[in-house]
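Box 3.1 A note on notation
Throughout this textbook, protein chains are presented in two layers. The first layer is the amino acid sequence; the second is a token string describing backbone geometry. Keep the layers aligned when reading.
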Amino acid sequence: MRLRRLEMQGFKTFAGKTVLEFSSEEKSNRGVTAIVGPNGSGKSNVADAIRWVMGEQSMKLLRGKKSEDLIFSGSEKKPRSGFAEVTMTLENDEPTEEMSMSEIVVTRRLYRDGKSEFEINRQAAKLSDITMLLAQSGIGQRTYSVIGQGMADAILSAGPAERKEFFDEAAGLRPFQLKRQQSVSKLESSKERLAQADILLREIAPRLSSLERQAKRLQMRDSLEVERAELERSVFGGNWHEISTHLRDVQTRVETSHKAEQELSKEAKRLEEELLAMEKAVPPSVEQDKLRQQLDQIAEERAELREKQASIRARIDAEKAHASDHRVPLSLKQIIDAVDAAQKKLDALLAHIESKSPSMDTVRKLVKDVHSHHSSFATKLQKPPEEPNAKETDPELASKLEEIAKKLEALTVRAQEIQKEIASWNQKEEGKRAHLFETQHALSAKRNEARKVEQESSVAAVELARWETRRDGFLSELRQHRPEAETELDTLATEVGKVENLAELAPKLSKVRSQLEWIGSIDPTVQKEYTETKERFEYLTTQSEDLRGAINGLETVIKELDETIRTRSEQAFHTLNSAFGKTFRLLFDGGEASLVQVAPEPTIDEEGNLIPPPDDAPAAGIDIIATPPGKRLKSIALLSGGERALTSIALISAIMATNPSPFIVLDEVDAALDELNTKRYADILGEYAAHTQFIIITHNRTTMHQANVLYGVTMGEDGTSKLLSVKLEEV
């Protein structure tokens, strides 16, 4: 790595664009460039420009009070500049894995409004990027790469900690320290972010749990609402299909029944009118009425005679009860049974007579049967069987009984005759009354059929009322739960059709509704909030885990960097100490010089106890012990100005010998040296020019003699610095 080019514009006294080329045709010699000029010409501004473009932030080292002092402030003949810009071009002649770029162009720009810009190879960059890039290239920012006026002596005057910083950078530890500093900064930042993430996690966790419960209930509600919608569709559609189907059927039955009832009523009315007309057209026979009256009178007379007969027999029975021998009358049960049997035969006879088509043969047979039964019963009543050894009945009573029996027989004969007359009359009137009987039978049938139809109509009406009640209850429930579906019931019933398990679906629907009521109303935005909160919680959890991993990694890196810094620092210190003593003896032609590590001070804990530093703790600083030949000095504060300058040069030379920098800017470091020491200083520059590029700002001719290129700086009448260059090799 070598400095090939430096461009300045608007920086301090270099108002116009000024270019310095640093090159050497000899590859074995990296070259010495000398910048000379009278006091006040601005030659030291070149060193300030290099220091500034390398990222220097201290205005004290840049010999200013504020950043605006770095911009050309103008003169009587030249206006001030609006900005200051310095561009440094580095040539990487030995690319490495860490630094593969063949050319590095670093630019720094400052405007009067305070805005600052950094660029690397014409691309915007940050100050930390430039610092790390230069550190990896082995170029120090604030130490021996640019040694300005008084800085050589400042190294000796500095404290042990500041010297250690100088030596660490010179030993090439700056990249590791920067990495460690960045790692520590990242570690602290990661810990802060981890603490913030943990705080947020603790804050979000309860809310997330609450939202999760609500989201689960919301998901449950969504699934239940879907289930409810399906159940309601099946229940409502199936119920309405069943209700509407049954209503149509029952209404049809009711209408059919009403229609049939009306038709039957009309037919019955027609038959009644026809029967009435027939009865008017065929009036009852007077003779038949007389015969029936006679038959009724005979029946009455017979009843009276039977009563008398029973009374006489009771007297006879009473007399026989007092006699030793008497007749045994019929028992009461026998009499009742005989009367019932006679009544049944009469009923059968009358029923046949009133039938639709009575047969005279059957009538005669039934009449004979009645007569025979009646005669037999009368005989048993009149002449009960005699018991053996019974006394004879009272003749008077027996005569009366015989008389009554004869009268009864006569009445029976007369009744039979009347029955024959009635049968004869009926036979004559049979043809006339056949149609009347048929009409009566039809009317009776129609009335019976009308009663059945009326019963069916009543049953259908009751069923219709029941289904209408069910319909009203269904619609009431529907309007309570889904009123908007009432207009779509017919379509829904058609789509759903008949549902077999309606009785099982209704309890399920009630259960789902109860569960929905238990869940209650939840804001639908809960799901969105839960998703966002969960994503944030997971992101923070992942970030927290990543941060913990990063913290562990950074702690490991810091430990490794600490070990690397400690190891390299020890090695570099011993090498540098040896080289410093050797160079010191060379410059002073004798004497002794060494570097001493200062141990870190013990710390104090919270209880006030001293805690000694660990054995592997790095040194807190470096002391310098220098004893020129013939003296017994221990403190460098007792050295003269020239001795201090030579000691500083010896220290710088030792650093260049152990860890050479790609280039070093020396700003009037030789100002305090005498002629002999200047010669030694110049010889050292010539010796180290083989592996280090030097830019020397000097007034000394002996030092100029080592230069390959000589730049002269003059101050023009317009108050700006100008350059004159001479290649001494060509001269």
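The longest strand covers residues 83-91. The chain has a mean pLDDT of 78.
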